[in-house]
Amino acid sequence: MSRLLTIGMNTIRGFANPAFNFLIVIFGVKIFGKNDWASLINVMIWVFFLTFILGWGNRDHLLREYSKAPGKMYDAFFSNLLSRSLLLPLALLLFLFFPVHIALWAVLLVVLTFAYASLSTLIIYYQNFSAQLLAEAAAFIIIFGSVFYFETFDLEIFLIVYTIAIVTKLVVLTVQMNFWKEQFSATLSIQEFKSGFPFFVLGLSGWLMSKVDIYIVDFYLHQSQLAEYQLLITAFLMLQALASYITIPFTKHIYRVSDKVVQKMKNKLYTAALPLTSFGVFSIWIILEKFVKLGFTYHYYVLGSLIALPCYFYTLNIMELIKAHKESTIIYISLFGFFINISLIFLLIETYEILGVLISVCITQWMMLLVYKALKTTALKTTALKTTALK
């Protein structure tokens, strides 16, 4: 029961953040208009991109280090945080793209988001997902309330609102975790960058595959279609991400348990896949067609379910490869998916527009699934042959 509660709490916590952002965007655009809210999105895109760079693959790298040496967990955490802080001056690049008064708040947002995101490994290791859910909910209330409080849109004011929200998240999480009370020793080391680099490249390859469609839609289609596609794909990606949220509580265990135990985890995830995607897509259809009134046919939502479904069948395969220190294999597969996706989008977007982009993403996801399963089958055959040869 406690394990189910942990899964449920992490799923709610993981799903809450994109859902909160989704609601904020919907009402922000509705109240202030696309152009004004787009100016905020433009700044936040840079903030999140720089935060991604500053993360430098720390989550998966540190979780593996924690599993190897739990007694030196805080040494690893603070050494990694101290070393990655050397990258913070990259945030000053924002002054090249925005006015000084906007860039100042954007840089502060990068620093605060960097600090907050760094705590994710401790949250996952201790499985204290309720603390993070409380922090995310507090930040959501601040931002969402501000959307209704202010009568006119001002970019600087909303950057200040986001700053207050992230400070609130940091305070709430810090009070809940009490991590500063632990004894630790921190060292500044280039080794942190070397160890995190494979995970960073891995994340970058995934980032390219998941974001390229947005940029192509922005280039080829009208602004209104871009907004519609963002709403659609964000909803489907939230549904897809449920697979990761369900498995995150067991990340530290996957590095320790046998293949048979991992297979049992896979079977449970496979069983949950179809009910979750079916219910999720139906909920998305109600929200986007009955409330937002996008006016899309059922074909778009069938494709959305097919986009989300494969992730439930290959998420644990990815973790197995990480466990076996085969991050480079994941990178190659992700780059393969990136090139397949971008080629199909260019082929279909002019004729089928948004539907064509969804078809491209769907085909790419299923090809990724086939590659991961073919790789696993090959590995099993190789192991069997080696076992037979030893006998």
From TrEMBL:
One of its GO terms (cellular component) is plasma membrane. It comes from the Bacteria. The chain crosses the membrane at residues 12-31, 37-56, 77-98, 104-126, 133-151, 157-175, 196-217, 229-248, 269-288, 300-318, 330-348, 354-372. InterPro entries: Poly_Biosynth_Transport. Keywords: Cell membrane, Membrane, Transmembrane, Transmembrane helix. It is a multi-pass membrane protein. It is found in: Cell membrane. This is Uncharacterized protein.
